[in-house]
Amino acid sequence: MPSQKILLYPHPILKKMARAVETVDDEIKGLLEDLIDTMREGPGSVGVAAPQIGVSLRVCVVDVSNSKLGKENNHGLLALINPEIVERDGEAFMREGCMSVPDYTGDVARSTRVVIRYLNEQGIACELEATGFEAVALQHEMDHLDGVLFLDRIASIKTGLFRRKSYR
Question: Per UniProt, where does Fe cation bind (predicted)?
Fold first, then answer.
């Protein structure tokens, strides 16, 4: 499947609550392939959510295994359908960027541990515990499903938002 065009803020789909997936069928499997290809094409990307490619469904992918921050602690490629956080604890600030907001990064407070329930690409209910950078990436992508951008989570736009020097 081909890499898809990323919608840029302030596109209205990015601020909309995505719909739950009713059935995991070939269309959803194709969407997952598009998301994976799009993530792999994105410069430094560790995840992408369906709303970022114009599809308002609760589907996202995350893979931090090639990132220096996630290399030692990860579950590999995760394809999540209708994910929900059922447990969280800890808090840390981390600098985040987003393909939908390519010119900026920001300091965002996130839980350092999350437990997530979701359907996998076969439609099987799963649960996983993630910590560290993987937990942050999962929260970031799941925020997209609720119409929330990292910009919405920055405590202070004056002190917590930074212009990106380059995007690669």
Answer: 98, 140, 144
Considering its fold, how many domains does the chain have in total?
Answer: 1
Other CB atoms within 10 Å distance of the CB of residue 91: 10
**Is 144 within a domain?**
yes
Q: Is 141 a catalytic residue?
A: yes
What confidence tens digit (pLDDT) does each residue in 94-138 have? 999 999 999 999 999 999 999 999 999 999 999 999 999 999 999
The CATH number of the domain holding residue 24 is 3.90.45.10
Could you tell me which residues come within 8 angstroms of residue 123 by beta carbon, excluding any fewer than 6 positions away?
23, 24, 81
Q: What are 32's two structure tokens? A: 């997952």
pLDDT in tens, 52-65: 999 999 999 999 99
